[in-house]
Amino acid sequence: MNDKYICNLSGLRPKDEEQGEFDEELGDLPIGWKEITIKERNYNPEWVVIQTIKEQQFKEAIASIEKEQQTDDVKLFLRVEIASKYASLEINTPKYIYENKVAYIAPLEHDKQIEDTYEEILKTLDLQDEDEG
């Protein structure tokens, strides 16, 4: 059996009879086991720094020009000029970073504490079945 499956609530490992066939939907997740995935997306701090530098350079460039010369065309020119300086860096810096956390839960009938904790998780996250109320 695949050693990656350990119940995060109990430390139990799958029983031999829980081993299932590989499928496209759940891979080799053991029969009766649950997989919970939490996905998070945030801005990449490096990408944010690049945006901050570009904005700062734009502000400095505008401040160095007399008010009457600060036309929309001049501002657009400056933005494009500054963007071009950072284009290759920006294209190689992902805008977002992703984090995935995965937990496995053994079949509920293995242990009353697993069932109770799982039900509490569902309740806390408001994931109850509609017919359970």
Topology:
Elements: E1 34-43, H1 45-63, H2 72-91, E2 96-105, H3 112-124
Antiparallel strand pairs: 1-2
Helix pairs in contact: 1-2
Describe the overall structure.
The chain is 39% helix and 15% strand. By secondary structure, it is α+β, with helices and mostly antiparallel strands. It folds into 2 domains: 16-40 and 99-132, no CATH class; 45-91, no CATH class. A two-stranded antiparallel sheet has the order 1-2. The relative contact order is 0.20.
Content of β-strand = 15-25%
Largest beta-sheet characterization: 2 strands, antiparallel
Which class of secondary structure composition applies to the elements? Answer: alpha+beta
Overall structural domain count: 2
* Proportion of helical residues: 25-40%
C-alpha-based Rg, rounded: 26 Å
Helical run tally:
3
The arrangement of helices and strands along the chain is EHHEH
- Unreliable stretches covering 5 or more consecutive residues: none
Mean pLDDT: 92
What is the CA-CA span between the terminal residues?
A: 37 Å
Q: Quick recap of the structure?
A:
This protein is about 40% helix and about 15% strand.
Please name the defining characteristics of this protein.
39% helix; 133 residues; two-stranded antiparallel sheet; 2 domains; alpha+beta; 2 strands; 3 helices; elongated
